[in-house]
Amino acid sequence: MKKHKQHHPYQKKQRKASDCVVSAYNFIPALPESFVFKPAWADQISHDIPFKDGESGEIEFEIEAVTPIFIRNGTGQDQEASDEFCHIVVQGEKRYFIPATSLKGMLRNVLEILTCCRLHPVSDRRFAYRDLTPGHPYMHNFNQNNVRCGFLFEKDGQWFIEDYGKPHFITHKEVDKILGTELHNMVRNRKEVQKLKHAFDKYKLKGGPYAVFKESKGVRFATFTNKNNKKMAKKTDDPNGREGYIVFTGQPGVRNDARNTGKATEFVFLKPEGHSKPKVLPVSPEVKSDFLNIYYDHDDNQINPDWKEWRKYLENGEKVPVFFTPDESGDGVLHMGLAYMYKLPYNSRIHGLYPLNTYPDPKSEEWKFDLAEVIFGSINGTDPLKGRVFFSHAFAIGNPQTADKVDTILGSPKASYYPFYLQQEGEKCKVEEYKTYDDADAELRGFKRYPQKGMTISNTTDLKPEEYNPNVRTQFIPLQKGTTFKGKIRFHNLKPAEIGALLSALTFHNKADQYFHSLGMAKPLGYGAVRIKNVQLKGLRYSDIVYYTNEFEIIMDTNLELIYKANTNQSVVWRDTVQYTEFLRTAAIANHPERLRYPVLKDFQQYKRDKKYLPPHSEFDS
Question: CA 611 → CA 43, 476, 526, distances in Å?
Protein backbone atom coordinates (compact mmCIF):
# COMPACT_ATOMS: atom_id res chain seq x y z
CA MET A 1 0.00 0.00 0.00
CA LYS A 2 1.12 3.51 -0.77
CA LYS A 3 2.67 5.34 2.21
CA HIS A 4 0.76 8.43 3.26
CA LYS A 5 2.49 11.46 4.69
CA GLN A 6 -0.23 12.29 7.18
CA HIS A 7 0.65 9.23 9.25
CA HIS A 8 3.31 11.30 10.97
CA PRO A 9 3.24 14.72 12.63
CA TYR A 10 4.33 17.08 9.89
CA GLN A 11 6.64 20.06 9.86
CA LYS A 12 4.62 23.25 9.89
CA LYS A 13 5.32 25.48 6.91
CA GLN A 14 5.18 29.23 7.28
CA ARG A 15 2.98 30.77 4.62
CA LYS A 16 1.85 34.27 3.91
CA ALA A 17 -1.87 34.89 4.21
CA SER A 18 -1.90 36.21 0.64
CA ASP A 19 -0.66 32.82 -0.63
CA CYS A 20 -3.75 31.02 0.57
CA VAL A 21 -7.46 30.66 -0.03
CA VAL A 22 -10.31 31.55 2.32
CA SER A 23 -12.43 28.88 4.00
CA ALA A 24 -14.85 28.64 6.93
CA TYR A 25 -13.86 25.02 7.53
CA ASN A 26 -10.79 22.83 7.64
CA PHE A 27 -9.92 19.22 8.41
CA ILE A 28 -8.20 16.99 10.95
CA PRO A 29 -6.49 14.03 9.23
CA ALA A 30 -8.13 10.65 9.73
CA LEU A 31 -6.06 7.51 10.17
CA PRO A 32 -6.05 4.22 8.23
CA GLU A 33 -7.12 1.02 9.95
CA SER A 34 -3.63 -0.02 11.04
CA PHE A 35 -3.24 3.23 13.02
CA VAL A 36 -6.67 3.24 14.67
CA PHE A 37 -6.61 2.69 18.44
CA LYS A 38 -8.85 -0.28 19.27
CA PRO A 39 -9.09 -0.94 23.05
CA ALA A 40 -8.18 -4.48 24.07
CA TRP A 41 -11.00 -4.55 26.64
CA ALA A 42 -13.77 -3.99 24.06
CA ASP A 43 -14.86 -7.66 24.06
CA GLN A 44 -15.04 -7.70 27.87
CA ILE A 45 -17.65 -4.95 28.22
CA SER A 46 -20.79 -5.92 30.11
CA HIS A 47 -23.68 -3.96 31.58
CA ASP A 48 -24.20 -6.65 34.20
CA ILE A 49 -20.66 -7.60 35.25
CA PRO A 50 -18.55 -4.54 36.13
CA PHE A 51 -14.86 -4.18 35.38
CA LYS A 52 -12.64 -4.61 38.39
CA ASP A 53 -11.66 -0.96 38.06
CA GLY A 54 -14.96 0.15 36.54
CA GLU A 55 -16.75 3.20 37.93
CA SER A 56 -20.20 4.71 37.60
CA GLY A 57 -20.91 8.34 38.30
CA GLU A 58 -21.62 11.79 36.90
CA ILE A 59 -19.81 14.72 35.34
CA GLU A 60 -21.50 18.06 35.91
CA PHE A 61 -20.41 21.09 33.90
CA GLU A 62 -21.44 24.52 32.72
CA ILE A 63 -21.37 25.82 29.15
CA GLU A 64 -20.81 29.52 28.56
CA ALA A 65 -21.54 30.96 25.13
CA VAL A 66 -18.64 33.20 24.12
CA THR A 67 -20.44 34.17 20.90
CA PRO A 68 -24.23 34.24 20.35
CA ILE A 69 -25.61 30.71 20.11
CA PHE A 70 -28.59 29.18 18.34
CA ILE A 71 -30.15 25.71 18.33
CA ARG A 72 -33.48 25.59 16.51
CA ASN A 73 -36.63 24.76 18.43
CA GLY A 74 -38.31 21.56 17.32
CA THR A 75 -41.43 21.73 15.14
CA GLY A 76 -43.93 19.28 13.75
CA GLN A 77 -43.37 17.63 10.37
CA ASP A 78 -45.80 19.93 8.54
CA GLN A 79 -44.84 23.12 10.39
CA GLU A 80 -42.45 25.81 9.22
CA ALA A 81 -39.03 25.86 10.86
CA SER A 82 -39.02 27.90 14.04
CA ASP A 83 -36.69 30.89 14.40
CA GLU A 84 -36.61 30.48 18.19
CA PHE A 85 -33.98 28.82 20.37
CA CYS A 86 -34.80 25.33 21.62
CA HIS A 87 -37.07 25.59 24.68
CA ILE A 88 -39.94 24.24 26.74
CA VAL A 89 -42.62 26.32 28.41
CA VAL A 90 -43.01 25.98 32.18
CA GLN A 91 -45.75 28.02 33.88
CA GLY A 92 -45.83 30.39 30.93
CA GLU A 93 -42.06 30.95 30.93
CA LYS A 94 -39.65 29.73 28.25
CA ARG A 95 -36.85 27.53 29.54
CA TYR A 96 -34.06 27.44 26.96
CA PHE A 97 -31.87 24.35 26.70
CA ILE A 98 -29.25 22.59 24.62
CA PRO A 99 -30.61 19.14 23.67
CA ALA A 100 -28.79 16.07 24.94
CA THR A 101 -28.32 14.89 21.35
CA SER A 102 -26.42 18.09 20.49
CA LEU A 103 -24.10 17.64 23.47
CA LYS A 104 -23.51 13.99 22.68
CA GLY A 105 -22.75 14.74 19.02
CA MET A 106 -20.35 17.53 19.94
CA LEU A 107 -18.43 15.45 22.48
CA ARG A 108 -18.33 12.26 20.43
CA ASN A 109 -16.88 14.06 17.41
CA VAL A 110 -14.12 15.56 19.55
CA LEU A 111 -13.41 12.23 21.24
CA GLU A 112 -13.18 10.45 17.87
CA ILE A 113 -10.47 12.87 16.78
CA LEU A 114 -8.49 12.91 20.02
CA THR A 115 -8.52 9.13 20.49
CA CYS A 116 -7.41 8.24 16.93
CA CYS A 117 -10.71 6.66 15.85
CA ARG A 118 -11.99 5.86 12.39
CA LEU A 119 -13.63 8.43 10.16
CA HIS A 120 -17.29 7.42 10.25
CA PRO A 121 -20.11 7.36 9.38
CA VAL A 122 -19.70 8.53 5.77
CA SER A 123 -22.27 7.76 3.05
CA ASP A 124 -20.85 5.90 0.07
CA ARG A 125 -21.61 8.53 -2.55
CA ARG A 126 -20.09 9.02 -5.98
CA PHE A 127 -19.69 12.68 -6.87
CA ALA A 128 -19.96 14.12 -10.36
CA TYR A 129 -18.39 16.96 -12.30
CA ARG A 130 -19.00 19.35 -15.18
CA ASP A 131 -16.05 21.68 -15.54
CA LEU A 132 -15.49 23.73 -18.69
CA THR A 133 -12.21 25.22 -17.43
CA PRO A 134 -9.62 25.05 -20.25
CA GLY A 135 -7.56 21.87 -19.95
CA HIS A 136 -10.01 20.17 -17.61
CA PRO A 137 -10.62 16.48 -18.51
CA TYR A 138 -14.41 16.94 -18.63
CA MET A 139 -14.45 17.85 -22.32
CA HIS A 140 -12.23 14.86 -23.07
CA ASN A 141 -14.34 12.45 -21.02
CA PHE A 142 -17.67 13.84 -22.20
CA ASN A 143 -18.00 12.55 -25.77
CA GLN A 144 -20.80 14.53 -27.42
CA ASN A 145 -20.87 12.05 -30.29
CA ASN A 146 -22.08 9.35 -27.89
CA VAL A 147 -24.83 11.35 -26.18
CA ARG A 148 -28.36 10.19 -26.92
CA CYS A 149 -31.76 11.32 -25.75
CA GLY A 150 -34.89 9.55 -24.61
CA PHE A 151 -37.65 9.28 -22.07
CA LEU A 152 -37.14 7.79 -18.62
CA PHE A 153 -39.94 5.76 -17.04
CA GLU A 154 -40.35 3.47 -14.06
CA LYS A 155 -41.92 0.02 -13.95
CA ASP A 156 -42.09 -2.13 -10.82
CA GLY A 157 -39.36 -0.05 -9.20
CA GLN A 158 -36.98 -0.48 -12.16
CA TRP A 159 -35.92 2.44 -14.36
CA PHE A 160 -35.91 2.22 -18.16
CA ILE A 161 -35.11 4.67 -20.97
CA GLU A 162 -36.83 4.77 -24.36
CA ASP A 163 -34.00 5.55 -26.79
CA TYR A 164 -34.85 8.38 -29.21
CA GLY A 165 -31.39 8.51 -30.74
CA LYS A 166 -29.26 11.62 -31.24
CA PRO A 167 -30.76 14.83 -29.84
CA HIS A 168 -31.31 17.63 -32.35
CA PHE A 169 -31.01 21.34 -31.61
CA ILE A 170 -33.71 23.87 -32.44
CA THR A 171 -33.33 27.66 -32.33
CA HIS A 172 -35.47 29.78 -30.05
CA LYS A 173 -36.95 31.49 -33.12
CA GLU A 174 -38.20 28.13 -34.36
CA VAL A 175 -39.57 27.27 -30.90
CA ASP A 176 -41.42 30.61 -30.83
CA LYS A 177 -43.00 29.86 -34.22
CA ILE A 178 -44.30 26.51 -33.00
CA LEU A 179 -45.33 27.36 -29.43
CA GLY A 180 -46.06 31.08 -29.69
CA THR A 181 -43.49 31.94 -27.01
CA GLU A 182 -41.03 34.85 -26.84
CA LEU A 183 -37.90 32.87 -25.92
CA HIS A 184 -35.72 34.45 -28.63
CA ASN A 185 -36.18 37.91 -27.11
CA MET A 186 -36.30 36.83 -23.48
CA VAL A 187 -32.90 35.07 -23.50
CA ARG A 188 -31.30 38.27 -24.86
CA ASN A 189 -32.69 40.40 -22.03
CA ARG A 190 -30.73 40.34 -18.78
CA LYS A 191 -33.79 40.84 -16.59
CA GLU A 192 -35.99 38.39 -18.47
CA VAL A 193 -33.34 35.65 -18.62
CA GLN A 194 -33.34 35.46 -14.80
CA LYS A 195 -36.85 34.03 -15.08
CA LEU A 196 -35.63 31.15 -17.27
CA LYS A 197 -32.82 29.71 -15.16
CA HIS A 198 -34.37 26.24 -14.92
CA ALA A 199 -36.09 24.10 -17.53
CA PHE A 200 -39.40 24.24 -15.66
CA ASP A 201 -39.31 28.03 -15.81
CA LYS A 202 -39.61 27.64 -19.58
CA TYR A 203 -42.20 24.87 -19.47
CA LYS A 204 -44.41 27.04 -17.24
CA LEU A 205 -44.64 29.58 -20.06
CA LYS A 206 -46.90 27.04 -21.82
CA GLY A 207 -48.58 25.36 -18.85
CA GLY A 208 -46.07 22.62 -18.13
CA PRO A 209 -43.93 20.04 -19.96
CA TYR A 210 -46.74 17.83 -21.17
CA ALA A 211 -48.53 20.85 -22.62
CA VAL A 212 -45.34 21.55 -24.61
CA PHE A 213 -45.04 17.90 -25.67
CA LYS A 214 -48.67 17.82 -26.77
CA GLU A 215 -48.39 21.04 -28.79
CA SER A 216 -45.21 19.89 -30.55
CA LYS A 217 -46.42 16.33 -31.12
CA GLY A 218 -48.20 17.00 -34.40
CA VAL A 219 -45.36 19.06 -35.85
CA ARG A 220 -43.16 17.64 -38.63
CA PHE A 221 -39.45 18.42 -38.38
CA ALA A 222 -36.83 18.65 -41.10
CA THR A 223 -33.27 17.90 -40.02
CA PHE A 224 -29.96 19.29 -41.26
CA THR A 225 -26.39 19.88 -40.11
CA ASN A 226 -25.30 23.50 -39.62
CA LYS A 227 -21.87 25.04 -40.25
CA ASN A 228 -20.78 24.09 -36.69
CA ASN A 229 -21.62 20.45 -37.43
CA LYS A 230 -24.61 20.52 -35.04
CA LYS A 231 -27.62 18.38 -35.80
CA MET A 232 -30.48 20.87 -36.18
CA ALA A 233 -34.25 20.58 -36.57
CA LYS A 234 -36.90 23.00 -37.79
CA LYS A 235 -40.58 22.89 -38.61
CA THR A 236 -41.49 21.75 -42.11
CA ASP A 237 -44.66 21.35 -44.15
CA ASP A 238 -43.21 18.26 -45.79
CA PRO A 239 -45.43 15.33 -44.74
CA ASN A 240 -42.30 13.14 -44.82
CA GLY A 241 -40.75 15.14 -41.99
CA ARG A 242 -40.25 13.35 -38.69
CA GLU A 243 -42.39 13.80 -35.60
CA GLY A 244 -40.80 14.71 -32.31
CA TYR A 245 -41.04 16.54 -29.00
CA ILE A 246 -39.59 19.92 -28.04
CA VAL A 247 -37.60 19.58 -24.81
CA PHE A 248 -36.37 22.48 -22.70
CA THR A 249 -33.29 22.71 -20.50
CA GLY A 250 -32.24 25.60 -18.26
CA GLN A 251 -30.82 28.94 -19.39
CA PRO A 252 -27.43 29.47 -17.66
CA GLY A 253 -27.03 33.05 -18.90
CA VAL A 254 -27.96 35.76 -21.36
CA ARG A 255 -27.49 35.17 -25.10
CA ASN A 256 -25.02 37.56 -26.79
CA ASP A 257 -25.12 37.19 -30.58
CA ALA A 258 -22.14 39.48 -31.21
CA ARG A 259 -19.88 37.37 -29.01
CA ASN A 260 -21.67 34.12 -29.84
CA THR A 261 -21.99 33.37 -26.13
CA GLY A 262 -24.93 32.06 -24.16
CA LYS A 263 -27.42 29.36 -25.02
CA ALA A 264 -29.49 29.99 -28.18
CA THR A 265 -31.18 26.61 -28.71
CA GLU A 266 -33.41 23.98 -27.16
CA PHE A 267 -33.85 20.33 -28.19
CA VAL A 268 -36.03 18.10 -30.28
CA PHE A 269 -36.34 14.41 -29.43
CA LEU A 270 -37.23 12.83 -32.77
CA LYS A 271 -39.32 9.69 -32.91
CA PRO A 272 -37.73 6.67 -34.61
CA GLU A 273 -38.14 6.70 -38.38
CA GLY A 274 -41.05 4.81 -39.85
CA HIS A 275 -43.38 3.23 -37.34
CA SER A 276 -40.74 1.43 -35.27
CA LYS A 277 -40.89 1.71 -31.51
CA PRO A 278 -37.93 3.13 -29.59
CA LYS A 279 -35.48 0.66 -28.13
CA VAL A 280 -35.90 0.30 -24.35
CA LEU A 281 -32.72 0.25 -22.24
CA PRO A 282 -32.65 -0.78 -18.56
CA VAL A 283 -30.98 1.57 -16.06
CA SER A 284 -28.83 -0.34 -13.57
CA PRO A 285 -29.23 0.31 -9.82
CA GLU A 286 -25.70 1.81 -9.78
CA VAL A 287 -26.46 4.31 -12.56
CA LYS A 288 -29.79 5.16 -10.92
CA SER A 289 -28.03 5.74 -7.58
CA ASP A 290 -25.41 7.96 -9.23
CA PHE A 291 -28.13 10.00 -10.93
CA LEU A 292 -30.08 10.50 -7.69
CA ASN A 293 -26.93 11.55 -5.84
CA ILE A 294 -25.89 13.99 -8.56
CA TYR A 295 -29.27 15.73 -8.37
CA TYR A 296 -29.35 15.62 -4.54
CA ASP A 297 -32.53 13.56 -4.43
CA HIS A 298 -31.72 12.76 -0.78
CA ASP A 299 -31.60 16.39 0.38
CA ASP A 300 -34.66 18.64 0.06
CA ASN A 301 -32.49 21.68 0.79
CA GLN A 302 -30.14 21.04 -2.15
CA ILE A 303 -32.22 19.00 -4.58
CA ASN A 304 -31.97 20.16 -8.19
CA PRO A 305 -35.12 22.27 -8.86
CA ASP A 306 -35.86 20.59 -12.19
CA TRP A 307 -35.44 17.08 -10.76
CA LYS A 308 -37.70 18.02 -7.85
CA GLU A 309 -40.45 18.68 -10.41
CA TRP A 310 -39.65 15.78 -12.74
CA ARG A 311 -39.63 13.36 -9.80
CA LYS A 312 -43.35 14.02 -9.30
CA TYR A 313 -44.06 13.11 -12.91
CA LEU A 314 -42.03 9.92 -12.64
CA GLU A 315 -43.84 8.92 -9.45
CA ASN A 316 -47.17 9.49 -11.21
CA GLY A 317 -46.24 7.12 -14.02
CA GLU A 318 -45.27 9.80 -16.54
CA LYS A 319 -42.12 9.83 -18.68
CA VAL A 320 -39.20 12.23 -18.15
CA PRO A 321 -36.89 13.51 -20.93
CA VAL A 322 -33.23 12.69 -20.27
CA PHE A 323 -29.85 12.62 -22.00
CA PHE A 324 -27.64 9.56 -21.64
CA THR A 325 -24.62 7.67 -22.91
CA PRO A 326 -25.06 3.96 -23.72
CA ASP A 327 -22.63 1.46 -22.27
CA GLU A 328 -20.20 -0.47 -24.50
CA SER A 329 -22.77 -3.16 -25.29
CA GLY A 330 -25.32 -0.59 -26.44
CA ASP A 331 -27.96 -2.41 -24.40
CA GLY A 332 -27.51 -0.48 -21.16
CA VAL A 333 -26.84 3.00 -19.80
CA LEU A 334 -23.36 4.18 -18.79
CA HIS A 335 -24.51 7.50 -17.24
CA MET A 336 -27.33 10.01 -17.65
CA GLY A 337 -28.57 13.49 -16.81
CA LEU A 338 -31.29 16.09 -17.32
CA ALA A 339 -29.15 18.38 -19.50
CA TYR A 340 -27.26 17.76 -22.72
CA MET A 341 -23.88 18.45 -21.08
CA TYR A 342 -24.77 16.67 -17.87
CA LYS A 343 -22.45 16.01 -14.95
CA LEU A 344 -20.24 12.94 -15.26
CA PRO A 345 -19.76 10.65 -12.25
CA TYR A 346 -16.21 10.30 -10.99
CA ASN A 347 -14.51 6.91 -11.11
CA SER A 348 -14.22 6.54 -7.33
CA ARG A 349 -16.88 6.24 -4.70
CA ILE A 350 -16.24 7.72 -1.25
CA HIS A 351 -15.69 4.33 0.39
CA GLY A 352 -13.13 3.47 -2.27
CA LEU A 353 -10.82 6.28 -1.11
CA TYR A 354 -8.17 6.37 1.60
CA PRO A 355 -8.52 5.93 4.56
CA LEU A 356 -12.05 4.48 4.24
CA ASN A 357 -10.79 1.83 1.83
CA THR A 358 -8.55 0.44 4.59
CA TYR A 359 -11.43 -0.23 7.00
CA PRO A 360 -12.98 -3.72 7.20
CA ASP A 361 -16.66 -4.40 6.54
CA PRO A 362 -18.52 -2.89 9.54
CA LYS A 363 -20.63 -6.06 9.83
CA SER A 364 -17.71 -8.47 9.68
CA GLU A 365 -15.77 -10.26 12.41
CA GLU A 366 -12.69 -8.26 11.38
CA TRP A 367 -14.30 -5.07 12.70
CA LYS A 368 -12.86 -4.15 16.11
CA PHE A 369 -14.42 -1.28 18.07
CA ASP A 370 -12.49 1.97 18.43
CA LEU A 371 -12.60 3.94 21.68
CA ALA A 372 -15.56 6.13 20.69
CA GLU A 373 -17.61 3.02 19.88
CA VAL A 374 -16.55 1.37 23.12
CA ILE A 375 -17.81 4.35 25.15
CA PHE A 376 -20.81 5.57 23.16
CA GLY A 377 -21.93 2.26 21.67
CA SER A 378 -22.03 0.97 18.10
CA ILE A 379 -24.22 -1.00 15.70
CA ASN A 380 -21.12 -2.22 13.85
CA GLY A 381 -19.44 -5.59 14.21
CA THR A 382 -21.16 -8.94 14.52
CA ASP A 383 -22.23 -8.14 18.10
CA PRO A 384 -23.48 -4.51 18.45
CA LEU A 385 -22.45 -2.67 21.58
CA LYS A 386 -24.69 -0.65 23.89
CA GLY A 387 -23.38 2.71 25.06
CA ARG A 388 -22.45 3.38 28.65
CA VAL A 389 -22.73 7.18 28.57
CA PHE A 390 -25.93 9.22 28.91
CA PHE A 391 -26.41 12.97 28.50
CA SER A 392 -28.97 15.29 30.03
CA HIS A 393 -30.30 18.41 28.39
CA ALA A 394 -28.30 21.49 29.40
CA PHE A 395 -30.74 24.14 30.64
CA ALA A 396 -29.90 27.83 30.64
CA ILE A 397 -29.38 29.28 34.09
CA GLY A 398 -29.85 32.83 35.34
CA ASN A 399 -31.82 35.17 33.09
CA PRO A 400 -30.94 34.33 29.47
CA GLN A 401 -31.59 37.07 26.91
CA THR A 402 -32.24 36.78 23.21
CA ALA A 403 -30.17 38.75 20.69
CA ASP A 404 -31.45 40.48 17.56
CA LYS A 405 -32.94 38.30 14.84
CA VAL A 406 -30.37 37.19 12.27
CA ASP A 407 -31.32 37.16 8.58
CA THR A 408 -28.62 35.40 6.61
CA ILE A 409 -27.75 32.74 4.05
CA LEU A 410 -26.34 29.43 5.25
CA GLY A 411 -24.84 27.47 2.38
CA SER A 412 -23.84 23.83 2.47
CA PRO A 413 -20.24 23.10 1.49
CA LYS A 414 -19.95 20.72 -1.45
CA ALA A 415 -17.73 17.74 -0.69
CA SER A 416 -17.23 17.34 -4.43
CA TYR A 417 -14.91 20.39 -4.39
CA TYR A 418 -11.68 18.37 -4.45
CA PRO A 419 -9.22 21.32 -3.99
CA PHE A 420 -10.50 21.47 -0.39
CA TYR A 421 -11.87 18.00 0.41
CA LEU A 422 -9.02 15.89 -0.96
CA GLN A 423 -5.41 15.84 0.20
CA GLN A 424 -3.29 17.95 -2.18
CA GLU A 425 0.47 18.26 -2.33
CA GLY A 426 2.11 21.51 -3.35
CA GLU A 427 3.91 24.66 -2.29
CA LYS A 428 2.44 28.03 -1.32
CA CYS A 429 -1.08 26.56 -1.50
CA LYS A 430 -0.60 25.65 -5.18
CA VAL A 431 -0.30 22.31 -6.93
CA GLU A 432 1.06 21.25 -10.28
CA GLU A 433 -1.87 18.89 -10.78
CA TYR A 434 -4.88 18.27 -8.57
CA LYS A 435 -5.85 14.96 -7.10
CA THR A 436 -9.53 14.39 -7.96
CA TYR A 437 -12.16 11.76 -7.29
CA ASP A 438 -11.05 10.13 -10.54
CA ASP A 439 -7.69 9.21 -8.97
CA ALA A 440 -7.54 5.80 -7.31
CA ASP A 441 -4.89 7.06 -4.85
CA ALA A 442 -6.84 10.17 -3.80
CA GLU A 443 -7.11 10.73 -0.04
CA LEU A 444 -9.97 12.21 1.96
CA ARG A 445 -8.92 15.11 4.18
CA GLY A 446 -10.55 13.70 7.32
CA PHE A 447 -12.77 15.16 10.06
CA LYS A 448 -14.29 18.51 9.09
CA ARG A 449 -14.11 21.27 11.71
CA TYR A 450 -15.04 24.95 11.82
CA PRO A 451 -12.07 26.83 13.36
CA GLN A 452 -12.95 29.39 15.99
CA LYS A 453 -13.24 33.04 14.99
CA GLY A 454 -14.04 34.47 18.42
CA MET A 455 -16.65 36.67 16.72
CA THR A 456 -19.67 36.47 14.45
CA ILE A 457 -19.65 37.65 10.85
CA SER A 458 -22.25 38.32 8.17
CA ASN A 459 -22.10 36.73 4.74
CA THR A 460 -24.72 38.97 3.11
CA THR A 461 -23.23 42.46 3.49
CA ASP A 462 -21.59 42.35 0.05
CA LEU A 463 -24.63 40.97 -1.76
CA LYS A 464 -26.62 43.09 -4.18
CA PRO A 465 -30.39 43.10 -3.60
CA GLU A 466 -31.00 40.90 -6.65
CA GLU A 467 -28.49 38.34 -5.29
CA TYR A 468 -30.20 38.12 -1.91
CA ASN A 469 -32.80 35.52 -2.87
CA PRO A 470 -35.46 35.30 -0.13
CA ASN A 471 -35.91 31.60 -0.89
CA VAL A 472 -32.46 30.79 0.48
CA ARG A 473 -32.59 33.03 3.55
CA THR A 474 -32.35 31.60 7.04
CA GLN A 475 -33.72 33.53 10.00
CA PHE A 476 -33.10 32.77 13.64
CA ILE A 477 -33.04 34.44 17.05
CA PRO A 478 -29.90 33.43 18.98
CA LEU A 479 -29.27 33.78 22.68
CA GLN A 480 -26.77 36.45 23.63
CA LYS A 481 -23.13 35.66 24.32
CA GLY A 482 -22.58 35.10 28.02
CA THR A 483 -25.59 32.79 28.28
CA THR A 484 -24.69 29.89 30.57
CA PHE A 485 -26.15 26.38 30.56
CA LYS A 486 -25.78 23.57 33.06
CA GLY A 487 -25.53 19.96 31.92
CA LYS A 488 -24.70 16.50 33.15
CA ILE A 489 -23.15 13.29 31.82
CA ARG A 490 -24.02 10.03 33.56
CA PHE A 491 -22.00 6.91 32.89
CA HIS A 492 -21.97 3.26 33.90
CA ASN A 493 -19.03 0.89 34.35
CA LEU A 494 -16.34 3.00 32.67
CA LYS A 495 -12.66 2.29 33.21
CA PRO A 496 -10.59 5.25 34.53
CA ALA A 497 -8.98 5.76 31.11
CA GLU A 498 -12.45 5.95 29.51
CA ILE A 499 -13.57 8.54 32.06
CA GLY A 500 -10.37 10.39 31.28
CA ALA A 501 -11.14 10.27 27.55
CA LEU A 502 -14.55 11.87 28.20
CA LEU A 503 -12.97 14.55 30.38
CA SER A 504 -10.20 15.22 27.87
CA ALA A 505 -12.74 15.66 25.09
CA LEU A 506 -14.84 17.93 27.31
CA THR A 507 -11.98 20.07 28.69
CA PHE A 508 -9.41 19.82 25.85
CA HIS A 509 -7.23 17.77 28.16
CA ASN A 510 -7.50 20.24 31.06
CA LYS A 511 -7.21 23.35 28.87
CA ALA A 512 -10.86 24.45 28.87
CA ASP A 513 -9.84 28.05 29.57
CA GLN A 514 -7.85 28.22 26.31
CA TYR A 515 -10.01 26.38 23.77
CA PHE A 516 -13.62 26.35 22.65
CA HIS A 517 -16.23 23.89 21.44
CA SER A 518 -18.76 24.65 18.72
CA LEU A 519 -22.49 24.06 19.13
CA GLY A 520 -25.62 24.66 17.14
CA MET A 521 -26.33 26.43 13.90
CA ALA A 522 -24.32 28.98 11.88
CA LYS A 523 -20.92 27.76 13.09
CA PRO A 524 -19.35 28.93 9.78
CA LEU A 525 -20.39 32.47 10.74
CA GLY A 526 -18.87 32.22 14.23
CA TYR A 527 -22.03 31.43 16.19
CA GLY A 528 -22.04 28.80 18.92
CA ALA A 529 -18.48 29.07 20.28
CA VAL A 530 -18.73 27.82 23.88
CA ARG A 531 -16.43 27.48 26.88
CA ILE A 532 -16.68 24.59 29.35
CA LYS A 533 -16.29 25.55 33.01
CA ASN A 534 -17.02 24.41 36.58
CA VAL A 535 -16.53 20.72 35.81
CA GLN A 536 -17.41 18.57 38.86
CA LEU A 537 -17.10 14.79 39.37
CA LYS A 538 -19.80 13.03 41.38
CA GLY A 539 -19.80 9.49 42.79
CA LEU A 540 -16.26 8.59 41.69
CA ARG A 541 -13.29 7.28 43.63
CA TYR A 542 -11.34 10.44 42.94
CA SER A 543 -12.53 14.04 42.67
CA ASP A 544 -9.39 15.12 40.83
CA ILE A 545 -9.99 15.41 37.08
CA VAL A 546 -6.25 15.22 36.37
CA TYR A 547 -6.10 11.68 37.78
CA TYR A 548 -8.48 10.42 35.09
CA THR A 549 -7.01 12.44 32.21
CA ASN A 550 -3.55 11.11 33.16
CA GLU A 551 -4.90 7.55 33.03
CA PHE A 552 -6.25 8.26 29.57
CA GLU A 553 -2.97 9.78 28.39
CA ILE A 554 -1.00 6.78 29.66
CA ILE A 555 -3.28 4.40 27.76
CA MET A 556 -2.92 6.46 24.57
CA ASP A 557 0.87 6.77 24.84
CA THR A 558 1.29 3.05 25.52
CA ASN A 559 -0.89 1.92 22.63
CA LEU A 560 0.29 4.50 20.12
CA GLU A 561 3.88 3.52 20.85
CA LEU A 562 3.06 -0.06 19.80
CA ILE A 563 0.99 1.05 16.79
CA TYR A 564 3.57 3.44 15.37
CA LYS A 565 6.49 1.08 16.04
CA ALA A 566 4.70 -1.65 14.11
CA ASN A 567 3.81 0.63 11.17
CA THR A 568 6.69 3.08 10.91
CA ASN A 569 9.38 1.80 13.29
CA GLN A 570 9.19 5.23 14.94
CA SER A 571 8.08 6.32 18.38
CA VAL A 572 5.33 8.82 19.03
CA VAL A 573 3.54 10.21 22.05
CA TRP A 574 -0.12 11.13 21.96
CA ARG A 575 0.40 14.88 22.42
CA ASP A 576 2.64 14.96 19.34
CA THR A 577 0.14 13.34 17.00
CA VAL A 578 -1.28 15.46 14.23
CA GLN A 579 -4.77 14.61 15.50
CA TYR A 580 -4.07 16.24 18.88
CA THR A 581 -2.03 19.25 17.71
CA GLU A 582 -4.14 20.11 14.67
CA PHE A 583 -7.38 19.80 16.60
CA LEU A 584 -6.23 22.22 19.31
CA ARG A 585 -5.32 24.75 16.64
CA THR A 586 -8.88 24.66 15.28
CA ALA A 587 -10.29 25.02 18.81
CA ALA A 588 -8.24 28.14 19.59
CA ILE A 589 -9.20 31.64 18.47
CA ALA A 590 -7.70 32.07 14.99
CA ASN A 591 -4.90 34.48 14.16
CA HIS A 592 -6.63 35.41 10.90
CA PRO A 593 -10.39 35.23 11.60
CA GLU A 594 -11.07 37.44 8.58
CA ARG A 595 -10.10 34.50 6.35
CA LEU A 596 -12.49 32.05 8.02
CA ARG A 597 -15.38 32.61 5.63
CA TYR A 598 -16.87 30.86 2.65
CA PRO A 599 -15.47 31.81 -0.75
CA VAL A 600 -17.96 33.25 -3.21
CA LEU A 601 -18.62 31.42 -6.47
CA LYS A 602 -16.03 33.37 -8.46
CA ASP A 603 -13.42 32.54 -5.77
CA PHE A 604 -14.02 28.81 -6.18
CA GLN A 605 -13.59 29.14 -9.93
CA GLN A 606 -10.43 31.24 -9.59
CA TYR A 607 -8.87 28.82 -7.10
CA LYS A 608 -9.21 26.02 -9.66
CA ARG A 609 -7.69 28.14 -12.41
CA ASP A 610 -4.78 29.05 -10.11
CA LYS A 611 -4.42 25.42 -8.90
CA LYS A 612 -4.85 26.49 -5.26
CA TYR A 613 -5.87 24.23 -2.40
CA LEU A 614 -6.75 24.42 1.31
CA PRO A 615 -3.76 23.63 3.56
CA PRO A 616 -4.12 22.33 7.15
CA HIS A 617 -5.36 24.97 9.58
CA SER A 618 -2.02 25.21 11.39
CA GLU A 619 -0.45 26.34 8.11
CA PHE A 620 -3.47 28.27 6.86
CA ASP A 621 -3.66 30.38 10.05
CA SER A 622 0.06 30.89 10.62
Answer: 48, 37, 28
